[in-house]
Predict the 3D structure of the following.
Amino acid sequence: MVSGNPQSGSEANGLSRRAFVRRGAGGVAAAAAAAGSGAVGTAGAQTTHTIDMTDGLVFDPDELTIAPGDTVVWETVGSVGHSVTAYEDEIPEEAEYFASGGFDSEQEARNAYPDGDVASGETFEHTFEVEGEYGYFCIPHESAGMVASLTVQEGGGGGGDGGGEGGGGGPPPVPESARTLALATIFGLLSTLGLAYFFLKYGGDYGTEEE
């Protein structure tokens, strides 16, 4: 005599298997999202680079490659003050003009100096959004050769805060161990999901019968 359960054993088992499959699918989706989150989270990260302005009358470094959206901080590390003044004809047409003191043009910055002087221990910073080549100089020491350039391009830089060492932009890499763990997790969940699907499709009636 068949037991009086409102659901047959096969129906109950089928529902259980389907629930298991749904849970497995949810786990795979969650793992995939977690694996991708590292790349998404770091892709938009911006970097700050430092350029020293020294008593040797140089920008250190005097050449730098950064990524769009990165910020450059110029710091006077000696006792002599300097300016950071862009050459108006040596920046991309679409780019915002930059100069310590907040001037809107090269001539205005030249005429106003020493306004815009970055004294010892002080800084000036600017964020670069437009790709291209930028040339700039120090007003009081231009004739001594205190000129420099930087390049803004996708993938530029690679080291973070330069501290006078060249710096570089770009997000920190995702650790290899994290990628390996994420891939192993996804593989395991996919295997479980495949096994559950097999039982759902080919599993028999596991209901019990009473005599």
Notes: Residues 9-43 form the longest helix (35 residues). Helices lie at 9-43, 106-112, 176-202. Confidence is low (pLDDT under 50) at residues 1-15, 27-43, 159-174.
